[in-house]
């Protein structure tokens, strides 16, 4: 905790005050790499624990942005700065175009591709993958950064509770459909592929009561609890990461997958819910709160270290 508060470097060589730019300062050029950064532009994040995990996690309560705002935009900006071809899936194409314009104003030679994707829809995920494959591009990096925290119970077009559909099933299907391309790219290029699932330690809030938990992700809104539904979706992310890591190892694929808890950050979500209580909480926690570039630093560590 002391190291975290003071920003002292950890085993990776970086601390809680390090930024994404600092992490990538000594990285080789990414000009031959293609990265997909998932997200829904209207879902932003609040609180996380900052410890990265492979098979375990700690505490945190996040809400994640897409590639068109907050952390997603910072992800795209830094990868574009380092020369990577960036694919930004988005539901809000106008917002995506604005993000692209901002990045190009800073790095005019960047290659940024905007594509339509709604992770709560299986049809949309399959259409996105089909359109991406038609581009005949390699795929080196997949950052599953999107997330949803639904205060009100809602159902996706596939008949699934919206939080679970967006946070877990959409990413699961996307990862499954692009995995072959990632394995092929790594084999041909000799460059290890990386998948990063941005998750949350709130998964540890799972009570172990399977029947009650299943009630959070069904059509029955009488049992719905937003926080518990979110926790279940994040637990599914962690379990998916563990199982996928095992299978990739068994396949001897040159692709690895990590699950990460980036830290505490204040972005648009908390501004959307501003008020005395929110402002007081973040004032008291100001020593722990990260900026967006500092938050993204943990994602970069999982990509390049």
TrEMBL record:
Annotated keywords: Oxidoreductase
The keyword Ubl conjugation is assigned to this record: no
GO molecular function, one term: oxidoreductase activity
InterPro entries reported for this sequence: NAD(P)-bd_dom_sf, SDR_fam
Keyword check for Oxidoreductase: yes
Family in the record: Belongs to the short-chain dehydrogenases/reductases (SDR) family.
Protein name in the entry: Short-chain dehydrogenase TIC 32, chloroplastic-like
Species this protein is from: Centaurea solstitialis
Organismal lineage: Eukaryota, Viridiplantae, Streptophyta, Embryophyta, Tracheophyta
